[in-house]
Amino acid sequence: MFTISLIGQKGGTGKTTTALGLAVAAARAGHDVAVIDLDPQATAAKWKDRREGENPPVVSAQASRLRQTLDTAQAQGIDYAIVDTAGRNDDSALSAARAADLVLIPSRPNIVEVETLPQVNDLLRLAGNPPAFIILNGIHPAAGRASIAEIHSAIHGLFALPACPVHLCQRTAYAEAMTTGKVPQELDADGKAGDELNRLFAFVSQFLTSRGDHVEIQRHSATA
Asked: Model's pTM, two decimal places?
């Protein structure tokens, strides 16, 4: 089982929207998925209440019980556990980062959110430096590749945090889907927002699978 944790140091960055979009993308790709909601506001769990379908399940949990919740998910055959955390500095982000195979940090390209990244870097160090990527969110749809590449380079240079090659644009489909317990892929299968989330899951899946293969090779080499 792979654990993907979405963290940040402020609200409104798009953690829950991204977590749910990833979860549905994984489920639609044929994987067993669970969303674990550590946010006391329970935004993901409330989304589930509005949702007609059973998949993916959303489990509300406390940060202090995350390890046990993940163990239960693995015992039930879950392929991807996606952990959503609170939009502020609390125990949930640290617990989620410690348990993660991959950490995703949604951030809009504005100074208010970018200034929180040093705190995220500190948190990742406390968590043992799990693999992590910043996901640029709320990018203007007309932004060119060159300008996005400049933002990627600036963030990496300032904070030593790599940017995910897939970014999310500012699109109404993200907000519209949340109100009905859906994700953009379900509102419009061929829409641009859904395509962004599907490509994000493809990147995450490939990264985790290749990293898992590398760890397995190292393990065999050490015991040979």
From this structure: 0.88
